[in-house]
């Protein structure tokens, strides 16, 4: 399977489906990106059930900003609409194959539970400004 160009217009549609989507954030002026491209392409040909997307960070600056891409290439793995891996740096072919294997083996029920627990922890309501939080210095009022 050839790689798919991902843009702001199609990114959510492509990455929200069930299954695995690998995303390569790259730019034409980036030497490591250019050297990694054939490895990524070969992997896409081996794994027809996986969508291999590429985001040109020059043309899609809003997407790069949305995912806080600061170094390219950055490889992202999304499974069933959940980002399960993101790391800057070109991967050797063996490491890319290992990543694919690990993403395929993920227990997505467990991943969803972890995401829900993380969200619940981070969505707790902060004290309102009308009722300041009490200090825990031992003093009572």
Automatic annotation (TrEMBL):
GO molecular function term, any single one: protein-disulfide reductase activity
Keywords, sorted A to Z: Disulfide bond, Electron transport, Redox-active center, Transport
Record's GO cellular component terms: cytosol
Keyword RNA-binding: no
Signal peptide as annotated in the record: none
Gene3D superfamilies reported for this sequence: Glutaredoxin
The Thioredoxin domain, residue ranges: 1-105
Disordered: region residues: 115-141
TM region(s), chain numbering: none
Family in the record: Belongs to the thioredoxin family.
NCBIfam families: thioredoxin
UniProt-recorded name of the protein: Thioredoxin
Originating species: Actinoplanes awajinensis subsp. mycoplanecinus
């Amino acid at each position: 399977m050839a790689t798919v160009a991902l843009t702001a217009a199609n990114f959510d549609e492509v990455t929200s489906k069930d299954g695995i989507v690998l995303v390569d954030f790259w730019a034409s002026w980036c030497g490591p990106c250019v050297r990694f491209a054939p490895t990524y392409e070969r992997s896409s040909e081996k794994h027809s059930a996986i969508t291999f997307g590429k985001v040109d960070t020059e043309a899609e600056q809003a997407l790069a900003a949305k995912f806080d891409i600061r170094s390219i290439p950055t490889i992202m793995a999304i499974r069933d609409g959940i980002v399960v891996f993101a790391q800057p740096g070109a991967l050797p072919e063996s490491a890319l194959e290992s990543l694919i294997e690990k993403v395929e083996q993920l227990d997505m029920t467990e991943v969803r539970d972890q995401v829900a627990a993380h969200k619940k922890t981070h969505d707790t309501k902060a004290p309102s400004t009308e009722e300041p939080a009490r200090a825990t210095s031992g003093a009572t009022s």
